[in-house]
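Lecture notes, unit on protein representations.

Consider one protein chain, 443 amino acids long.
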Amino acid sequence: MDLLPVWLLEVPLLAPWVAPVALATAVAVAAGLWAWRPRRLPAGVQAAILLAPAALAALAWWIANRVWVPVADGVSALVFVWLAVALVVLAQVLTGPWRPRPVRWGAAGVVGSLVTVLCLALGINAHYATYESLAVMTGSTITWTDWKEARPAPARTVAPAAGWRAPADLPERGTVSPVAIPASDPAFTPRDAVVYLPPAYHADPRPALPVMVLMAGVPGEPADWFGPGRAAETLDAYAAAHGGIAPIVVSVDPLGGTLVNPLCSDGPHGDVATYVARDVPAWIDRTLQTDPDRAHWTVGGISNGATCALQTVARTPDAYGSVLVFSGELHPDLGGEEKTVAEGFGGDQAAFEANDPLSLFAAAERGEGQGDGGAYRGLGGIASVGEDDSYVGPPVPQALAEAAGRAGLEMQVRTYPGGHTWSVWSRALADQLPWAAERMGLR
């Protein structure tokens, strides 16, 4: 995207005026095309130009949210409204009278279609508050470093982070690199992880830094934390204020695909739970020089990834010391408990409960399961949510925190302006990083 001017890359796509202007422009394009040519068509054709797209959009909504259900929280109705508008424009172009000026009408149709598609993309992006700018959308804000270059040779000396002092030639920013982290179970094939190494990691002697493992949601991929999640900028800012020290961050894939949801469990899609709790930490131990104390490690995620993070801590309380639950679900979810048990766990209710944090916390209260003997004591977390989140509302993190607290895991609740969007989660990461860093042994 170097061909695009800087001013265009930096246009704010989430400004309050973007969505209404996009909608007004799309409607104006549709009205303009109709006024120019299709209005001369028979009334029946004109009615079909409006009704057929509306019917197709309604059918697409039904298939996506009632039959296919690619995401548990459903696809917003606004997406299908935009689809209907785009189909109206396309129908006008295809059915408009092409004579006596076919070239002019064809050019108008192409331009109108392209403008409508652009408006559709802007409107949907504004609704989901995902990409702040074209720079974020195109990945221009991420400075990628090849893993072989980013990962320096083992330091001769690894010092405790508390007593480490930055050398004069310390880099100003950390490195962001894609790298494969394989699963021990060949049935599960995760997509490449993304690793952030803070400036201090590139020094010798090197401080023993703790690790934060993050996960995106459905749909999503590990790189999302460094695009719309703005993790590198947040971590670099923290490092700049702390002498180059920040947590190592590893964003991993607990899904195996954009729209796949194995419910963060060991099951038909492979041993995903084992991957997050055991395989990823084992790879980090083999590959990087870190603080080996798991009590100083944190796991977190957004939406489905947040649920996975809490599942991981609930099932394996020795794997991580802290958990960040950004808009996590109340239970592992494929669209209701009955559907989740049937499709995700083969109808086995006990298997569902063995992967459900609330069930595991309740068992710990009874002195049973993984939390028996006070295994959750000493663990801490934050459950957060957007104040306007229509999928995971503010009562959900409160319920999670209360259940965790009764089992011995101390969990705060924090809320932020916004909905179930990256604009909330990127802000939440920046807000919660100091709390997490302190628990991770950094000052």
